[in-house]
């Protein structure tokens, strides 16, 4: 049986009060997407509002365009799927073998406190199926609880976009949450590498990656759990 992967992305495209565009970071979708696709997985894309996922324009800059990101720009099927994601409220955990959340700053606004997302992750973990999130997307874990009422990240090794990386972007005072702080608040054993170096944590069914370069390694870690 081919594995069924759900990828959940943001619908949010404005960076706080700045008026600047944000959204999903392309590499953080493209690298895992092609890692899963090349494994033969069936991939479904979802977002809070459904339809077109906004892509952070900074992730389309020349220095951000990795091989996977370039592959996406030439892939009509993937672009069409990105334009027609299904609404998150229509998604059921039992229809998939795993869930993966690409980052970008968007999730800090519309996936951080999203009740459908929280239920999806809780149901997926309860069914003993893995969940992955990279960069800013580990913010989706902050209010997720296990069946015994504890925070999912409590006592778990986790990573995500670090406070020092956010400071390097000069966005510390713009974003509604700092990923590192929120994971620590909920009992997570937060770990990070140097700014923009690869870091992935796997703890039980949970896979987290620190930043864009950690996207494919995080996907590979999730694939390993599904093997």
UniProtKB/TrEMBL annotation:
The keyword Lyase applies. Residues 26-219 form the DJ-1/PfpI domain. It comes from the Bacteria. InterPro entries: Class_I_gatase-like (IPR029062), DJ-1/PfpI (IPR002818), Prot/Nucl_acid_deglycase (IPR050325). SUPFAM superfamilies: Class I glutamine amidotransferase-like. Keywords: Glutamine amidotransferase, Lyase, Stress response, Transferase. GO terms for molecular function: glyoxalase III activity; transferase activity. One of its GO terms (cellular component) is cytoplasm. The keyword Transferase applies. One of its GO terms (biological process) is methylglyoxal catabolic process to D-lactate via S-lactoyl-glutathione. Belongs to the peptidase C56 family. HSP31-like subfamily. This is Type 1 glutamine amidotransferase domain-containing protein.
